[in-house]
Amino acid sequence: MKTASKLNFGEKGIISDIDNTHPSFRRILEIGFTPGQEIQLINSSAFNDPLAFSLRGTLIAIRKQEADCIILS
Amino acid sequence: MNADSAVKLQLITLVGPPNSGKTTLFNLLSGKNLKTVNYPGSTVEYSIGKIQSKFGIKADVLDSPGIISLNPNSPDEEISVNSLYNHPIYGSPNFLITTVDASQISRHLLLSMQLIASGFDIIVVLTMNDLMEKRGFRVDEKKLSEELGCKVIKVNGRTGEGIDNLVIWLKQKIDNDRIEIRENNHNNRIIPKKIFENAEKEQLLKLYSDIEEIEKKVITPLPVISEKNFRNANKSLKILNPTLKSGNNQPDELTLKIDKYLLSKRLGLIFFFLIMSVMFTSIFWVADPFMSLIDDFFGWLSSITLAFLGNTWYGDLIADGIISGTGSVLVFLPQILILFLILGLLEDTGYLARGAMLIDKPLSKIGLNGKSFVPMLSGFACAIPAILSARTISNRRERLLTIFIIPLMSCSARLPVYALLIAFLTPSDKLWLGGIALAVIYIVSIIGSLIVAAIVNRFNKRLIKAEDNSSFILELPAYRLPKAKVVIRNSIDNAKQYIFRAGPVIMVLSMIIWFLTYFPNHNPVIDETGLNTEQIEQMIKSERLATSYAADLGKFIQPVMTPLGMDWRVGVALISAFAAREVFVSSLVLIFRVTDSGDIRSSMISAMRNAKIEATGEQLFTPATTLGLIVFFMFALQCLSTVAVSRKETGGWRIPILQIVIFTSTAYILTLFTVNILRFAGIA
Ligand SMILES: Nc1nc2c(ncn2[C@@H]2O[C@H](COP(=O)(O)OP(=O)(O)O)[C@@H](O)[C@H]2O)c(=O)[nH]1
Ligand SMILES: [Mg+2]
Hints:
Order of helices and strands of chain A: EHEEEHE
Number of domains of chain A: 1
CATH superfamily of the domain at 3-248 in chain B: P-loop containing nucleotide triphosphate hydrolases
CATH class of chain A: Mainly Beta
Bound molecules: guanosine-5'-diphosphate, magnesium ion
Oligomer: heterodimer
Low-confidence stretches of chain A: none
Number of helices of chain B: 29
Low-confidence stretches of chain B: 1-6, 181-198, 236-247
Number of helices of chain A: 2
CATH topology of chain A: SH3 type barrels
Strand content of chain B: 5-15%
CATH architecture of chain A: Roll
Largest sheet of chain A: 5 strands, antiparallel
CATH class of the domain at 3-248 in chain B: Alpha Beta
Helix content of chain A: 10-25%
Distance between the termini of chain A: 8 Å
Number of strands of chain B: 9
Largest interface: A-B, 35 and 44 residues
Mean pLDDT of chain B: 82
CATH architecture of the domain at 3-248 in chain B: 3-Layer(aba) Sandwich
């Protein structure tokens, strides 16, 4: 199962599901990471965490551990 | 209908996602000048204002912190959500204006849809249409209005275009509402409970799929125009990055390009430190010429006052007590203004969110969060708004720890103190050294605060209770050119507030200190034989001080000051600094009676060079004691307003009391070490 945290820089993926056991899952959904959306890994901080994704025409930074609940198809 | 309800103004509340232009719209409607920041989560408190009279509407508007959905996730969001139902002071709003960033429509409509579903009466204001058009798209507001079933109006926050439409519509709306109220006296609009409180995944997903349908219908590409025309059109709109080809679902291209550097793996941190250090060092350099101007003015004012009033007690009070005292602090106003200006510029560009992201990892290691970055940075201006802005941190433990260390950030009230002490330490022709010294002070205070955070986090789990989910989810907004007018106006407002806050305190304390140092023996008898007038003058002054009330008071402080290599005179100045840190400077001016004509700064420094400890005859201000004082001011918690806000925001006395005790004792101990180690090392 591939999650958003496994993307390479510049790589795109389509969200298939959000793991709803993750404590941040509601916020992740609310901010726009919904199934069917295409995301792309754009940047990360110098410490490899958090990661910045392109989503719905904007950039959103989330921690790796949070990107792990975004399941890609 | 009773008189009360006729007088009571209607309440319009502004709600919307963070960074969607609420505060900008609030400023347009109310004519106020609240700070707008290109950072999600810049407003953490309500502001209320009346709609400007020029619009001919009698109603209050309320600005609120941004929310993504009706499920609050942090204290600032909770404030907003609660105010939708019932504001503790202003009651429940008559209707809502919801801002939606047109270029973010697929995310921002979520809140509007939730509000409509919960039965709120809303008007949607579409903002940032200019950015959308830059991408070659527009939103059809008529179609959107049909889809949502509520009024949609476009407003350009930067030019104010479209505000008239909104006003016309508000006017109608308010008139209609009034009739309704007359008809059924009771306003029995059912306030829906938070129906989304337990909204599960399915509901959210359903909403999003509805939004996607709507999005398809309302977004249309602009008619293609030649690239050249397009660029020109954009130039006149002052848009950063004219691009023709990018699609609507791509982030701003220029932003991506800038981020290649500013967020690059190798260079990101270097840029981060570069930006921070340029910021701190320039405070010193840029301000200097302006400071000399103010300085000359006050020096001149003080000398003509003295010449006019003669050598009387009231001449001394006005020239020394009031003019030199107040002037000695106001001299540093340009530095404070420039600090605000630089912070404002940085805030408006959109870099803050990147800064937060860059240091999230290291901060999370010591129990803080990337989102602590913005509160910490604004702590350099003033701890009070900084403590409030910690509300954006959702994890309570991280928020409390952030609040805990904010008083250690070198706030603007400390600038005059540092500037004076640095000027004493560095030769005046080496201005660059002063700038660097200031930057070093800032850096050391940051490192110090991080060490404190790490220690508190490591050893005292009970101090601040643990909380499970630590999270960092932050939108990185597109870069924008700061709007110079707004930034300048904000900085001037801040500087004015600074004068009105600190000014009276400084003046009152200056008079108190003047009184304590002038009486009771204001006309001492001295042996004048063989002395010239200047020496007599000097003798009278020192004799008067040595027998003054301040000297009596000083006897109590002397034992605490002796280990630090200082005497009671510095002690009195330090105590007076608890009223406001800047008062330290004005107190020194009074105690050492700096009256020379010319500029206050240089005569203050020469007075400091000449000062001797009475008991031993040693130099009072040496590099060791001066550095010691800098260390003291870096750590000591000397601000009562900070204590009050800390109590309110943490919900108890525990944290503010710990802050006072820990920081002030640390300050004393570190000063003790600094002074004595430096002396031991041979640096007197
Ligand atoms: N280009 C453009 N920028 C805007 C517009 N409205 C607001 N802004 C900018 O967007 C940023 C966020 O605005 P602000 O009012 O603080 O948003 P809030 O967080 O919703 O209160 C600021 O930098 C504003 O100057 C607009 O219509 N067009
Ligand atoms: Mg705001």
